[in-house]
Amino acid sequence: MNLQNLRVFLKVAELEHITRASEELHLTQPAVTKIMQSLEQEVQLDLVERQGRRIVLTHAGRVLQTYARQMFSLEREMDDALAALRDVHRGEVKLAANTTAGVYLLPSIVARFRGLYPQVGLNISIWNSQDIIEHILDWSLDFGIVEGEASQLPAGLDVRFFTRDALILIASPTHAWCGAEAIHPSSLERRR
């Protein structure tokens, strides 16, 4: 279905008059009439009824009007979202990560960000998790990547969990733990 024809239909529905719609759309009255007839042929339903010089929507016309409004509302949302992306030309984002995240996660995040926002500067720091949290809370950082339990972080932070880390214990082939299927974490504390 031609979106321009739907726009014409919506204007006719709004004004309930073909001549007034043609004037607002800067089209001839026969062009608007032809578009309306074309739409009716396409959907194989009558969309309007003439009541004297006025146009009244049929039930099918009201259904089409509802969906057309939704489509154009979505089109406006899309345009706004794309405009917001076009407007990201400059500025700076301050980001910090702890050592592990900085080594293993940050390179791919930075590469993706650079691809999306090449004109935005990145100020990246590597700090411990507690320093990152403090700088986020005092607004000197925009984003931080830390390790830990989300439930242990201060209230008021917008926290997004995005990956899980697995720690693996490695021991010498002659160590007492070699071959053990499981080792309780408290065993690690006693070996210090």
From TrEMBL:
**Which terms are listed as keywords in the entry?**
DNA-binding, Transcription, Transcription regulation
Q: Where is the HTH lysR-type domain?
A: 1-58
Q: Which Gene3D superfamilies match?
A: Periplasmic binding protein-like II, Winged helix-like DNA-binding domain superfamily/Winged helix DNA-binding domain
Membrane-spanning segments: none
Top-rank taxon of the source lineage equals Bacteria
What Gene Ontology molecular function terms does this protein carry? Answer: DNA-binding transcription factor activity; transcription cis-regulatory region binding
Query: InterPro entries attached here?
Result: LysR_HTH_N, LysR_subst-bd, WH-like_DNA-bd_sf, WH_DNA-bd_sf
Q: Which residues form the signal peptide?
A: none
- Entry's PANTHER family? HTH-TYPE TRANSCRIPTIONAL REGULATOR, HTH-TYPE TRANSCRIPTIONAL REGULATOR CYSL
The record's similarity note reads:
Belongs to the LysR transcriptional regulatory family.
Q: What's this protein's name?
A: HTH lysR-type domain-containing protein
Species whose genome carries this gene: Dictyobacter vulcani
